[in-house]
Amino acid sequence: MSARDESAWLGATEIASDREIARVAATSVVGYRQDQGRLLHCLAHKPAPVSRWADFREVGADDLDDGGICVYRDCGRDLLAAWPTVPEETTR
Length: 92
Prior knowledge:
Layout (H helix, E strand, L loop, with lengths): L7 E3 L2 E3 L2 H8 L3 E6 L5 E2 L3 E3 L8 E5 L32
Antiparallel strand pairs: 1-2, 2-5, 3-4, 3-6
C-alpha cells in the first residue's frame, strides 16, 4: 500500500489517494486555483475549503491558458499533464 492510498490532511491541504485523483481527473478538473489566481495546486494536493491561507476552486484545462505548476511544497507537477483516470489494480 502506498503512502497516498488513504487520504490524509497535512496542514491545510488534503493529500489525495490515487483513487480520489483518478475520480476527479475523470471529471476534467485538472487542479485548484486560488480565487485571486496566484496559487495553483494539482489534484494530489487539494487545499482545504476556505482555509485561512487562501480560498481555492476547481479549474479545468480551459481555465489555464498557459498551463501551470503545482506550488505545494516541492511538488512542481504540471497541471496540464494527464493523470490516469482509472487507478491501476494490483494483482497478487
